Amino acid sequence: MPRHVPRGVCKAILTGEHAVVYGHEALATALPLGFAATLDHPPQGPLLAVEVAATSAEAVPFRGALGDGSMLGQAIEKIAAALGVSRQRPLLVRVVGDVPLGRGLGSSAALAAVIADALAVAHGLELPVDELARAARAGDEVFHGRASGIDAEAAVRRELGLFSRTAGWRRVEAAPLHLLVVDSGEPRSTADVVARVGARRAADELGVARLMAAMGALAQPAATAARTGDLAALGRVFDDNHRLLQELGVSTPGLDAAVVAAREAGALGAKLTGAGGGGVAIALMADRAALTRAHAAVVAGGRKGWALTCP
Ligand code: MEV
């Protein structure tokens, strides 16, 4: 039997970010970007450490271990506790990946998922996906604070799905989607933007509730459009969701410009994805050829982008 390589993947929310934090439904897809891990048993060192190799030319490697006080160390502790594992001898999990960090694509959930998977492998546990997702959620919460759990679910399940806090994850069967990801170039933090939305909700409960409900109501039509291959309808949902996220105040000039650039490059619809406040936008393309052309156009325009066929 081939050896199981621990994995955790990124995600893009196609509609419903922020609304999903408040109990509404969202649609997300796993992305073909992620982390893989190998296990090492050094003779000495911390009982459980994780080393993440540089994820891109601009990134730096980082490391965390049980009890070292780092965020990664705390996430490792939560994941191990959720899986119910404790170690007697040192384990080093080496993580590699092509993941854009902190851009709204769920890198921290992908990391939590690969660590959960690696720990399960190290302890010979064959866990149902629900258990792995629960452990990845526990780890991701260290990075995200009030997380809905959608990122960790997508990171573990590696498919297109609907998610809400009450109904959990439900797979959506659809042909692969061609997504252009365009970077705004702006830094951001999910925890900060989620906290900002929380403050706005405290000041204008009815107004924000109306926006959240309108965003949540887009998830089912989006899933139906994906299932039936109605890409024009799905593109319209992207546009509608972006307008509502602008109204919520989480878009930025850089994200709006990325959305415009993607539409000019032929997208059927485009929106910010993830918490916003910077990070990336996603755009729906009709097919692989359109995706390749649009990617070339945005890169020629001086933007960073990824051409992804998902999940
Ligand atoms: C998730 O990528 C983005 C938010 O919806 C937060 C969450 O669901 O945890 C803003």
Protein described:
With 311 residues, the protein is of the alpha+beta class. The protein folds into two domains: 7-171, Ribosomal Protein S5, domain 2, CATH 3.30.230.10; 177-310, Alpha-Beta Plaits (2-Layer Sandwich), CATH 3.30.70. It is 42% helix and 23% strand. It has ten helices and eleven strands. It has helices at 71-83, 107-122, 129-144, 150-157, 190-203, 205-216, 219-228, 231-248, 253-264, 288-300, and strands spanning 7-15, 26-40, 48-52, 62-65, 91-97, 160-164, 168-171, 177-183, 269-272, 280-285, 305-310. Strands 1, 2, 3, 4, 5, 6 and 7 form a seven-stranded mixed beta sheet that branches. The protein has a four-stranded antiparallel beta sheet with strand order 9-10-8-11. Helix 6 (205-216) runs antiparallel to helix 8 (231-248). The longest helix has 18 residues, at 231-248. The protein is globular. The chain starts with 6 loop residues before the first strand and ends with a strand. The mean pLDDT is 95. The protein binds (R)-mevalonate (MEV). (R)-mevalonate is lined by residues 13, 17-18, 20-21, 106, 144, 147-148, 150-151, 190, 194, 274-275.
In short:
This protein has 311 residues and is α+β, with helices and mostly antiparallel strands. It is built from 10 helices and 11 strands. 42% of the residues lie in helices and 23% in strands.
